[in-house]
Amino acid sequence: MSRRFSFIMRHRVSKREQPFPLFRIFLIGFMGSGKTSVGKKLAELLHLPFIDLDDRVVQMESASIAEIFATHGEDYFRAKEAEALRSLADGDQFVLASGGGTPCFHGNMQWMNEHGITIYLRASPELLLLRLKDEADHRPLLRGKSEEELRTFIRGRLQQRESFYVRAQHTIETDGHSPSEIAAEILKQLV
Taking the domain 24-190, which CATH number applies? Predict the structure, then answer.
């Protein structure tokens, strides 16, 4: 890796330092921040299973995220998301990509901090807009928004969620780096 390759990796220590189960990793961040792409690469490097929390909810409900939102609403989805997350309490080591809103509901951020290593993949609003504008129709919270509405939504929602995201034990700035580079840097910081 070049010297120009830089990350911010910050460890947040709780008042009562807890030993974390080694390599039970929760990736958090806004939708489009790269949690799934980075998570798959990191899991491959660690030879661990990769879990996408949205996929677990889809499997539990036998319906797509869009169908769950349309049929039952966001509150129902968030409750099922918390249930799927907590179903991992007795699980082995893994790398998990959370949903963008996962840390913000049902005490999930605290739960993840207590059950593993949390890593916030921080991406700028500009990068998020670039990544999300072409897939907005596939994401229930973004569906039907113009590019300007999407820009406003991303900035506003990111501001609301940031107070949850920054509770992660580690933060990595992802702009300008590939999923492979980010996964390699996480691995380097963790071992």
Answer: 3.40.50.300
